[in-house]
Amino acid sequence: MSESARQDHVVEMVQYLRDTIAEIDDALRDLQVRRTGLAIRLAAIEAAGDSAVVEAAADYAARVTENRPYEDAEAAESLLAEAYSRYVT
Fold first, then answer.
1. Which residues contact 68 (CB under 8 A, 6 or more apart)?
2. Cα-based torsion angle of the residue sequence 77, 54, 59, 73 in order, rounded to the nearest 10 degrees
3. Measuring CA to CA, which residue among 14, 86, 74, 18 is closest to residue 47?
4. pTM passes above 0.70
């Protein structure tokens, strides 16, 4: 094999590898998006069965409807962050 043919072969192989890695990255990205969606649904279903979560959601809804401040917003944010990290990441 001549030097020129060898270099052409290397260039083709490099491009093939780049393209294949890009395809794998796209597939993984799609799977991650799907996984995140499923994890969020799971967290919502599990939270709906937790009486403390249901009570907190009802309290929050009532406060919003009545235009009352939500004093425990920081605690709620912490709970949501914990649920997110547990189920999504």
1. 62
2. 0
3. 86
4. no
Residues in the chain: 89
Cα-based distances in Å from 70 to 45, 52, 61: 24, 16, 10
Q: Which helix (H) or strand (E) covers residue 27, if one does?
A: helix 3-48
pLDDT digits (tens, 9 = 90+) for 32-75: 999 988 888 888 888 778 887 778 778 777 877 888 766 666 66
Q: Which amino acid is at 73?
A: A
Tokens of 8: 């052409």
